[in-house]
Design brief:
185 residues; alpha+beta; 9 strands; 5-stranded mixed beta sheet; Muramoyl-pentapeptide Carboxypeptidase, domain 2; single chain; 6 helices; two-stranded antiparallel sheet; 32% helix
């Protein structure tokens, strides 16, 4: 029902906004045979994560789109990263809340991200756990979680940022290892 309302709203919006022609939404089957709709925030990109988790630009109050550079390569990177995040989620056995995933270049500059951030390619996620199930950062000590994840970094082929003791979020990414899988930004 929600999807029908979204489609109707889109049609009505298009009837009044003549600045752009309506776009055809490309739906592709995922590996599990289900359809992944990148325009639907609740569409699952993996077992635990959604399009909204990957594309939300919180400070701008919207999702990243093709206008922001969202393309097939970035979508593929997001799906690879989601698989790794699913592994982490199952390993720690706690819900994960995404702070930041894809950051288009302009947004990355806006929030003060690293110049060559893996977030711009959909290959990095900043996250925390949801200990109380209320969507707030109130759970696990990120230092403890980093120590639990550290021995698994090589096996899972991920890197984790050493963002200091007492950090309130964890950064993982799939960039190639230069010096260490646990790295300083």
């Amino acid at each position: 029902m929600i999807r029908i309302l979204e489609i109707l709203f889109s049609i009505l919006r298009g009837a009044f906004d003549k600045s752009e022609p309506p776009k055809k939404v490309e739906l592709k089957p995922k590996e599990d045979g289900n359809i992944l709709d990148w325009s639907n925030p609740s569409s699952k990109i993996s077992k635990y994560f959604t399009v909204k988790d990957a594309l939300i630009l919180r400070e701008w109050g919207r999702l990243a789109t093709e206008k922001d550079g969202l393309n097939e390569e970035i979508k593929s990177n997001i799906l690879k990263t989601a698989k790794k995040l699913d592994i982490i989620r199952e390993y720690i056995n706690k819900p994960i809340l995404v702070k930041s995933w894809l950051r288009p270049p302009e947004y990355n500059v806006h929030i003060g991200g690293a110049r060559k951030s893996a977030h711009m390619d959909g290959l990095a996620v900043d996250w925390w756990t949801d200990q109380n199930g209320d969507g707030q950062l109130n759970g696990e000590d990120c230092d403890l979680l980093k120590s639990i994840l550290m021995p698994k970094l090589k096996e899972w082929e991920i890197r984790m940022e050493d963002n200091g003791k007492g950090a309130r979020w964890i950064h993982i990414d799939l960039k190639p290892v230069k010096n260490s899988r646990f790295f300083k930004p």
